[in-house]
């Protein structure tokens, strides 16, 4: 009953936000780099930090994580409405990462570990944010991660938090996982969710001692990293919006359904996560296994990307 009440509450909050967004013209207008063709309400992902705030008052999450997520959410929401410079955005990320590290007691770890984890978390937050581009991809991928984390023993004490955040994803998905989305997550949704998922990932690795759990982010990670390398090779500004991720090629240039492409990414990641959880339960989740899977997935990704790019070139010739 408690979670049913939360679901209804999140639904009401989201509908109220739509009225506010419509009233104050908080919208996404399609442009040459967009994957959508009609005006859509922006910032529906505000339900994620709101859900986390409610979880805090219910005693499900620490003040450090709550403050970290709220901080990046507020700055990101302002940026959604009126674009900010890099300084306040990056500054909020640095403070938020510091709060996450404080919660996880990482400042007592070896000095060399902190900067590595800092680069990883900042990189993940920005990669997750940049990957938001077609209907359903952010929320389905986030829900996949939340479901996967909920099966790990290390997070059993935080199961109520994971369920709460999962419910917020379902509510957002009702309005986003559509052929014609009513709302997009915006930076307020994607960055706040990315930070929370990054927190769970670092906690998983530190507490379990298994670096192999990094595979939970492998599908997004491989697409993001290779796309960045390709853009650098083309001398493009990697901080500018674009349509050169593989999922964007599939949805935009190849004409596949946004929802189909988003489901493929989510299901593929869920299958990988299932294998990782099983391997760990059998005591076989080694670093060698994780590296081997990453190389295999990268190889498959490159083959598919080259095939798609070749078809695009032939189709335009």
UniProtKB/TrEMBL annotation:
The chain crosses the membrane at residues 47-75, 110-127, 134-153, 159-177, 184-206, 212-232, 253-279, 285-304. The keyword Transmembrane applies. It comes from the Bacteria. It is a multi-pass membrane protein. Keywords: Cell membrane, Magnesium, Membrane, Metal-binding, Transferase, Transmembrane, Transmembrane helix. One of its GO terms (biological process) is lipopolysaccharide biosynthetic process. InterPro entries: Glycosyl_transferase_4. This is Glycosyltransferase family 4 protein. Pfam families: Glycos_transf_4. Its cofactor is Mg(2+). It is found in: Cell membrane. CDD domains: GT_WbpL_WbcO_like. GO terms for molecular function: metal ion binding; phosphotransferase activity, for other substituted phosphate groups. Its main location: membrane. One of its GO terms (cellular component) is plasma membrane. Mg(2+) binds at residues 129, 187.
């Amino acid at each position: 009953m408690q979670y049913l009440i939360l679901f209804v509450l999140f639904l009401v909050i989201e509908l109220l936000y739509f009225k506010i967004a419509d009233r104050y013209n908080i919208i996404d207008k399609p442009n040459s780099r967009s994957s959508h063709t009609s005006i859509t309400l922006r910032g529906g992902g505000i339900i994620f930090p709101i859900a986390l705030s409610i979880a805090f008052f219910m005693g499900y999450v620490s003040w450090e994580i709550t403050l970290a997520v709220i901080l990046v959410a507020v700055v990101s929401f302002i940026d959604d409405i009126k674009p900010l410079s890099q300084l306040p955005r990056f500054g909020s990320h640095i403070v938020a990462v510091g709060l996450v590290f404080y919660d996880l007691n990482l400042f007592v770890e070896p000095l060399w570990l902190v900067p590595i984890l800092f680069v990883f978390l900042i990189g993940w937050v920005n990669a997750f944010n940049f990957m938001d581009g077609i209907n359903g991809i952010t929320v389905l991928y986030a829900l996949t991660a939340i479901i996967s984390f909920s099966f790990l023993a290390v997070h059993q004490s935080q199961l109520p938090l994971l369920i709460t955040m999962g419910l917020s994803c379902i509510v957002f998905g009702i309005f986003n996982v559509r052929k014609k989305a009513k709302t997009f997550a915006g930076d307020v949704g994607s960055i706040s969710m990315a930070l929370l998922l990054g927190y769970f990932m670092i906690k998983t690795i530190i507490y379990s001692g298994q670096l192999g759990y990094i595979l939970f982010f492998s599908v997004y990670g491989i697409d993001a990293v290779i796309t960045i390398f390709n853009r650098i090779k083309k001398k493009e500004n990697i901080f500018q919006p674009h349509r050169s991720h593989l999922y964007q090629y599939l949805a935009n240039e190849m004409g596949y359904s946004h929802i189909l492409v988003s489901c493929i990414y989510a299901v593929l990641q869920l299958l990988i996560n299932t294998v990782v959880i099983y391997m760990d339960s059998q005591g076989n989740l080694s670093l060698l296994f994780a590296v081997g899977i990453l190389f295999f997935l990268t190889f498959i990704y490159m083959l598919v990307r080259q095939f798609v790019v070749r078809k695009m070139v032939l189709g335009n010739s």
